[in-house]
Write a structure and sequence with these properties.
Blueprint (H helix, E strand, L loop, with lengths): L1 H11 L15 E5 L19 E7 L2 E12 L12 E8 L17 H15 L10 E11 L4 H15 L9 E10 L2 E6 L3 H8 L12 E8 L4 E5 L8 H38 L11
Parallel strand pairs: 4-5
Antiparallel strand pairs: 1-2, 2-3, 3-5, 6-7, 6-8, 8-9
Length: 288
């Protein structure tokens, strides 16, 4: 009853289930250099060295990303003469999804394989791979907690880890989601959906929803260039292109807000490294 009363009160004042406004993203924090950086190119996470790393928290969703390289390719058959090979692996801890403690095999889980391909596609649009021919850049993402939007958090974490590793990019790749559905008789567009809202929009989890009026749209973009590098919508659009355009515009606004948080984290990391170089400060890599 207490939960129902709280939901009713939030609905009356036009707030979402977690107290946010419709166009407000979740609390987001970013930490660059989450793990000690070395020049090693191992395969384990996180025991071996890495070139760059980051930890991104979007609400209750937490993602750790490690970047290794550019380094030599293990097999010559995998070398590309004109650009670097981008290897992306996405994994999930057994305790990351709430209420589910199954060990997930990243090589056979369909959702992880699909999101690894989407992550590779989004990053390939920004990384200047032609500067490192016959080499390999390895990106490993570990989902520590999943409260919805793990693909968006993974893209943001991978971008920051690449910047921490010194990999040149065309622009920051920022990701955010947007959705639209009829909740309580009011048709509204919301930004940065959590797990409960995603289930309501897609009809998963036994909570209803998933009608022709619902849309769930994760978007990755380079906001400074105004370029969309990833957009995935599996809903049937009853409103046509106009409804899709409204949700896409809201998602782009969310990407802009995400970029501001990520840029602030990069500036903070750079200022700390510069002070350490001048001998005015000590950089604590595990100070989070």
């Amino acid at each position: 009853m207490a939960s129902t009363r709280r939901t009713d009160i939030l609905s009356l004042i036009h707030l979402r289930s977690d107290g946010r406004r419709p166009h407000e993203i979740r609390h987001m924090s970013c930490h660059l250099g989450a793990l000690p950086s070395t020049t090693a190119c191992g395969s384990a996470l996180p025991t071996s060295g890495c070139s760059g790393s980051s930890l991104v928290m979007m609400g209750l969703t937490q993602v750790l990303c490690v970047v290794r390289g550019p380094c030599d390719v293990g097999r010559r058959s995998e070398e590309l003469p004109d650009r670097s090979t981008l290897e992306v692996n996405m994994r999930s801890t057994p305790f990351s999804p709430p209420g589910d403690r199954r060990n997930i095999n990243p090589s056979t889980d369909r959702r992880l394989i699909e999101q690894s391909h989407l992550l590779q596609k989004a990053l390939s649009a920004s990384i200047l791979l032609h500067l490192f021919p016959k080499s390999k850049i390895s990106v490993t993402v570990m989902v520590l907690a999943d409260d919805g939007g793990r693909l968006e958090a993974a893209i943001n974490a991978a971008t920051l880890a690449l910047m921490d590793a010194g990999i040149p990019l065309k622009d920051m790749v920022c990701a955010c989601s947007a959705g639209r559905w009829n909740a309580g008789g009011s048709d509204e567009i919301v930004v940065d959906l959590n797990r409960r809202e995603i289930q309501a929009a897609t009809g998963t989890g036994g909570g209803g929803g998933g009608t022709s009026d619902t849309i769930y749209l994760p978007v990755a973009a380079m906001p400074q260039r105004g370029t969309i590098v990833l957009s995935q919508c599996e809903s049937r659009l009853s409103g046509g292109a106009e409804a899709f355009g409204e949700v896409l515009e809201a998602a782009m606004g969310g990407c802009q807000m995400v970029m501001e948080v990520m840029a602030a984290a990069v500036r903070e990391r750079g200022a700390g490294l510069w002070k350490a170089k001048e001998g005015k400060a000590n950089v604590l890599l595990d100070d989070w």
